[in-house]
Design brief:
Its EC number is 2.7.1.6. One of its GO terms (biological process) is galactose metabolic process. This is Galactokinase. It comes from Saccharopolyspora phatthalungensis. With 392 residues, this protein is α+β, with helices and mostly antiparallel strands. It is globular, with a radius of gyration of 21 Å. It folds into 2 domains: 203 residues, Ribosomal Protein S5, domain 2 (2-Layer Sandwich), CATH 3.30.230.10; 172 residues, GHMP kinase, C-terminal domain (Alpha-Beta Plaits, 2-Layer Sandwich), CATH 3.30.70.890. Strand 3 and strand 4 form a beta hairpin. The protein is built from 11 helices and 13 strands. The longest helix has 22 residues. The protein binds 2-deoxy-2-fluoro-alpha-D-galactopyranose (GAF). 2-deoxy-2-fluoro-alpha-D-galactopyranose binds next to helix 5.
Length: 392
């Protein structure tokens, strides 16, 4: 059963009667363009088939209640608070993600009534696949629907505006200083495409991306090493980039042209140079990847993925031994390219693999983990899927 149908059924059990709507939003895999979003740069994500669904029904009072299906198969209920009572820290824990969205909408001037929400998520959590943004985007759309602002309504907010509201929830309520990549991917990706998104201009283009049509697959390797953007070195990397841009008197590192990189680096303190080198070369790799995909040259993006990983590992220093192992073992077994994805310090890697070689590559990655006595990784194919929408 789909996440949406399960959310609808659980809603009926929990609250009696039907939900008024069910919205869902997917997790994402970023093909390339990592740690470029908060530098005003370029990203190229796809949406996963894994979705988080939110069944909703407005309440006559002002209470905001959320129940989520846990991995233990039970519903976990957040303490019900009124929408007026929501403030960063109240509620905390997992409930901060849905509550933060209601708070951000309220802060943006929407008059929200109370609502009951039931959440069913199938995006693996802590795996760098953006489960928190899938949840936040689905909640945002469900709540906006209650005030006639969901996509499709007359004068509705644009997807870009919704993405910024979700970003505010994540940054100021949940306390994770993340950029715009994940919510934009979850909201705006379409099936069989990658989304080429220019964070500075807000412009995006759907790039046809269907690896299976050329005998390839994008394999996700979830290392099972959990990560968290509010606790990892993510914020510190972000501050380093902002400091470098300030010292260079630029709005953002996006403004360093690849051709000026060598001349620019000596003007910076030594510890900031690798950060800048990563961001500038990564933006360039996104542009080259888009060119290759537009020309249908899928295999050519392999080396770009691998170069991205080396840059994230050596310059940006956000990889982890398990991510390096996933990438190295996949490459040794015949992947055309591989890299860690997302914020790093754990989570997942991707590998571009010929369909025919996938069983061997999968076996090689699994035995590499086994030899090092690591938790078995979870492997699956990332099929470029649809973005968020209303299911029921
Ligand atoms: C995380 C963040 F949420 C994104 O905004 C982005 O910075 C990414 O890490 C790194 O590219 O997923």
């Amino acid at each position: 059963m789909s996440a949406a149908n399960r959310a609808a059924a659980l809603f009926a059990d929990e609250h009696g009667g039907a939900a008024s709507a069910v919205w869902s939003a997917p997790g994402r895999v970023n093909v390339i363009g990592e740690h470029t979003d908060y530098n005003d740069g370029f990203v190229l994500p796809i949406a996963l088939p894994h979705r988080t669904a939110v069944a909703i029904r407005p309440r006559p009072d002002r209470l905001f209640s959320v129940a989520t299906l846990g991995s233990d198969g039970r519903l976990h209920r957040s303490p019900a608070v009124t929408t007026e009572e929501l403030s960063p820290g109240n509620p905390s824990g997992w409930a901060a993600y849905p509550a933060g969205v209601a708070w951000a909408l309220r802060e943006a001037g929407f008059t929200l009534g109370g609502a009951d929400l039931v959440v069913v998520g199938e995006v693996p959590t802590g795996a760098g696949l953006s489960s928190s943004h899938a949840l936040e985007c689905a909640v945002a759309l469900a709540l906006l629907d209650t005030v006639h602002q969901a996509p499709g309504e007359p004068d509705a907010l644009s997807l870009g505006e919704i993405a910024r509201l979700v970003q505010r929830a994540e940054n100021d309520f949940a306390g994770a200083p993340t950029g715009l990549l994940d919510q934009t991917a979850s909201l705006a990706c379409t099936a069989a495409h990658a989304l080429f998104f220019d964070v500075r201009s807000g412009e995006s283009e759907q790039i046809p991306f269907d690896p299976r049509s050329v005998g390839l697959e994008l394999l996700v390797i979830d290392t099972r090493v959990k990560h968290s953007h509010s606790e990892s070195g993510y914020g510190q990397r972000r501050q380093g980039c902002e400091r470098a841009a300030d010292l260079l008197e630029l709005k953002a590192l996006r403004d360093v042209a690849i051709g000026d990189l060598a001349a620019t680096l000596p003007n910076l303190p030594e510890e900031l140079r690798p950060l800048v080198r990563h961001v500038v070369t990564e933006n360039d790799r996104v542009l080259t990847t888009v060119d290759e995909l537009r020309a249908g040259r899928y295999a050519e993006i392999g080396p770009l993925l691998t170069a991205s990983h080396a840059s994230l590992r050596d310059d940006y220093r956000v990889s982890a031994p398990e991510l390096d192992l996933a990438v190295d073992s996949a490459l040794e077994a015949g992947a055309l390219g591989a890299r860690m994805i997302g914020g790093g310090f754990g989570g997942s890697a991707i590998a571009l693999v010929p369909v025919a070689d996938r069983p061997d590559i999968e076996r090689a990655v699994r035995s590499a983990f086994e030899r090092q006595h690591l938790t078995a990784p979870r492997l699956f194919t990332a099929v470029p899927s649809a973005g968020a929408g209303r299911d029921l």
